[in-house]
Amino acid sequence: MLHRRFLEEAIAAGLPAKGLDQAFAQKIEVSPSMWSQIKSSRPIGDTLARQIERHCEVEIGWLDRADLAADIPDPAEERFVAAARQAWRGANARGKRDLSRLLQGMARSG
Fold first, then answer.
1. In a 3-state reduction of DSSP, which class is residue 91?
2. What mean pLDDT is reported for the chain?
3. pTM, entire model
């Protein structure tokens, strides 16, 4: 969630997407390879969690509540839902069926 927030803010500020993972790693003071491992679900300890929270300017213990943060939709998800709703409402019965099948197929393969 903190990484996604960083990416969204950087892109909104006009920064190119390339190199943002390295920039985030630098922000939280870890090596790019360590950040890559963390992104790949490598567990982190309390010391590193507090370091990340401090550099991302969130309250201490924020990362311990990750289950709560996962339920909060991000702006990109909200835009997708709005676009899907618009497509659904503008489609005829066949279009709705095709859209539903497409999304179900993507969910199964994801």
1. coil
2. 87
3. 0.58
